[in-house]
Structure formats: structure tokens, C-alpha cells
Amino acid sequence: MSYASTVPSPEALLPSLTPNEIVPLLIGATVDEVERELVLQTLARCDGNRTRAARVLGLSVRTLRNKIREYSADGIDVPMSEHAAA
């Protein structure tokens, strides 16, 4: 079994909400706020695994790492894998 087959698809990580249910939740939030929440929720669902989260989000690991550093500098708790916490 390849590693790629163990990475969940973005659809598998999303709750089963329709766009008509999601969009009203986003109104009033900035793009930065929406992006941050998407990154943090994806990290949480990937158990803090940055490589998996980056793949799901369509980002490079470097870009995700930079976003995590920015969030941490702003005092935001970022989900970490058990390996990174040790």
C-alpha cells in the first residue's frame, strides 16, 4: 500500500454540509480568518501531521510551516503531532 493511499481526500475531511450551509457561516469573516481556520481544522483532522495536512490543503510543507509560525507568533494554538510534541 502506498503512502498516498493513506492520505484522506479533502472531501473525506469535510463535514457533509452543502455550500448553502457553509457560505452563511463564512459571511463576515475575512479571507485570512477563513484560511487560518481551514488550516487549523485540517491540521487537527490530520492529527497534527503537517505533511498530510499540506497535501490535503494543496500547499507545500514549507508554506504550511510558514503559516504555522505566523499563527504561533500571534499566540494561536496550533495542533501538533505526537512526534512533534515529544
TrEMBL record:
InterPro entries assigned to the protein according to its UniProt record, in alphabetical order: Homeodomain-like_sf, HTH_Fis
UniProt GO molecular function: sequence-specific DNA binding
Ranges of residues in domain DNA binding HTH: 31-71
SUPFAM superfamilies according to UniProt: Homeodomain-like
Pfam families per UniProt: HTH_8
Protein name as catalogued: Fis family transcriptional regulator
